[in-house]
Amino acid sequence: MLLTGPRSFDPAPFDDISYDLCTRRDDVVIMSADLSKYCQVVRVKNELPRQHLDVGMAEQNLLSVAAGVAKGGLIPVATCFACYITRRAYDQMMICMGTGSGPGTNQKTGPTNIAIGFTPGISNPARIHHQAAEDLGMVRAIPNARVIDPVDSTDFRAALDAAVDLPGLTYIRGHRGDTPRILDPEKFTFELGKTYKLKQGKGIGIIATGHGTQWALEASDILTDRGVEHSVLHVPTIKPVNESEIAEFAFAHNQIVTIENHQIVTGLGSLASEIVSDIGGGPRITRLGLPNRWAPGGTMDFIRGQLGLDAETLATRIAGVAK
Amino acid sequence: MRRNQSILDLEIIAVKIRRNVLEICRQRGGYAAQGVALADVTAALYFDEMRPDSEGWFHDRFVLSNGHDAIMTYGALAETGHYTIEQLRTYNEDGSQVDQSPIEGQLGFEITAGSLGQGPSQAAGLAWALRQQGSDKRVYCLFSDGELQEGNVWEAAMFAAHQKLDNLCFIVDNNDMQASGRAVDVLGVEPVPEKFEAFGCKTRRITGTDMAELLDTFDEARATKGQPYVMICDTRLWDGIDCLQQALPMAHYTAKAAVDWDEGLAEITATLSALEARRDG
Ligand SMILES: Cc1ncc(C[n+]2csc(CCOP(=O)(O)OP(=O)(O)O)c2C)c(N)n1
Ligand SMILES: [Mg+2]
Prior knowledge:
heterodimer; A: alpha/beta; Rossmann fold; seven-stranded mixed β-sheet; five-stranded mixed β-sheet; 12 helices; B: alpha/beta; 9% strand
């Protein structure tokens, strides 16, 4: 695999990421809505209390207070579960955090507003209400917003570092709990919009994001064992993505498969299909991810099995598209 | 009182704001009744309470939550010269940069306020951030009785009181009117002061049209420590222009053809002459 390093696990990536960021930048405020512990905001809360602000279990307040904090010259990083930070407070995300800068607004550069949605997709065990299968699509629909779905703690950290220097709204999907280290920080440098080839091959081109990239790499090992030729492209930035890189990758393969921990509509699969169909004459695109029905609850392994997203079934589904 | 303006001078400014509101709204209609009713609050806020800075703007921060009440700010910023009346006459015209409910970053407007109920939390976040940085700036936020029906407003009140944001002053346009009629009929919001008191705020209920009382209330807000302050203004649409108040008391939005703008302006001119005569008297 390209750009990857020795596999290990990070038990609490955001605790370190948030603490490191706050020690470097005293203008950053990590915000919680009664879920600090559940988003692994522990050291900042205990050791840098001036840089932690809890608004209680009130997600509309989380994002509207955050937007006010940003207008006061600080950089809010609002944290919550992906489901609540998007669904419960979408209007506040769009209107309060999202309208301050960029084309079509009144100013080129406005305040920096960051929201991080933890336990996205099926990475939350509580079915339906706690899962967020549509967050990428929701935020992607906001003009000028940035949407990032990192695969591991390395690009999660890098995405947040990039976001604090950018005006406007950035939404990042967070990782919590045992998170695999996949990318090698020595070889990988995050750039907004850039895509990353993790395996160079031909035949089937796999495009993946977030947990979907983890799943794609698992399936990739099986496909390699079975002699099925393929490539893997990791796309952490859903918006604004470097479209020509996706197009180039897609047109270099006979078949494209997209993999995401998100509904197969409005997220990565849609993005790739839109880019390729805008050009026309491209390869067929098979979108794998969460179906348009309620996913079950439980451990992510169990849910993946139920939805045909476990490594074995994924590999078989991917190999199947070649036929 | 902060800027040593006389009450009479501020009353004259309020009348001029009312005149500007009519001049702007008579072109194509608008939220004239609110702009007129809020003219005294606006004069007190922009011409006495908020301190000017060295760059021709204000040291203190005003967050307009009730987007369509932007008309009151336009009325004031025509008097300060930040907008010309010609620019403001494009209000409600296709392609105009003078939005009826403005977007964040437009001169005079801190937030995008049209999705109602989102100002108080942003004002509270702003006040928190300013205090955090040791700033002496104060934050004022105007919102309406209709907005009191939005949960986000009460989340803001709970947060502001918990954080003891005494650099924050909420101003409620408690005009018993909303989009489809009187608030008492749609969904009652009273008792407003008691509700905010229960959330931990200090409150005072005023008419919103008595200049001396307004200045005294702002004084009290500034003197209040450890709590956010809420001034509840029991205005009524068109307060200050009797003929229009009688003609169209239920005017959430005033269409161009709905009232006789000349009649309203004539009453304004007479009021202004009387006040100026008293001043020069
Ligand atoms: C979140 C939201 N819901 C609904 C509306 C539509 N709307 C516009 S004004 C209004 C009533 C607002 O009441 P208030 O501000 O008290 O009206 P006024 O006193 O100015 O007549 C409504 C429901 C809106 N702008 N925002
Ligand atoms: Mg009202």
